[in-house]
Write the structure tokens for this entry.
Amino acid sequence: MAEVAFIGLGVMGFHMAGHLACEGHSVRVYNRSPAKAELWSDEFAGDAFATPREAAEGAEFVMVCVGNDDDLRAVLLGADGAFAGMAPGAVLVDHTTASADVAREMAVLAAERELGFLDAPVSGGQAGAEAGMLSVMVGGEQAFYDRAAPVIESYAKMVRRMGPVGSGQLTKMVNQICVGGLLQGLAEALHFAQCAGLDATAAMEVISKGAAQSWQQEHRHQTMLEGAFDFGFAVDWMRKDLSIVLDEAARNGAQLPVTALVDQFYAEVQAMGGGRWDTSSLIARLKRPG
């Protein structure tokens, strides 16, 4: 069992840290909103701290799950940042969906302090975090990965090292490209089925046994038909992720016409007031009058 700090107790981190505690690891937590950290410490066996530095002191592994590049810098750097509290030899595992550039930047700063660094974004959403069944794609040195993987497995069904630092974030970009395209295709398919007078639910049940099967189809088609979007991965977050994807594509020369179009469609959903709706809400823009 390891001494672990977990920084960032949002819809994902709260449950991920909980699984660590339930597995028997000694867990110290920090959250920007102290009330959330206290709620976690009341529910699980662990202590809440006032700063990332305090939470990180004495931890062999420090897990971070925050919102974006700037949030990551805010909790790692400075006098009260996690890096300041970590002892040489400790490993920082960043579960934030962020840019590959910030991963490389933080890895350099970690190395200067004799710390390990892994970029390790996750896929599986809130449901995956609650069930401890996330997929974790990791970038970083093999030695750091070998040490951290058994701890990460507390909340994962799949953990894989994808290459050097930044590779985890690049793999998460691949994931988001797939998710956006699949959801737009599913939205159009459901919309078409309804316009054609079909029983859309029955159509999904039939084609789910064939080549069109996907996780999104099986888990989202019914709520899409019901117009229920008050759960899951928010459109605002997806647009943040797609912005990272499109910026990276501009650098590496990848052609992503469908991804760029889906990003525009999500902007329309935001304009409809759906910024906090689940990403499956793409269907809502197809049902607007006219």
In short: The radius of gyration is 20 Å.
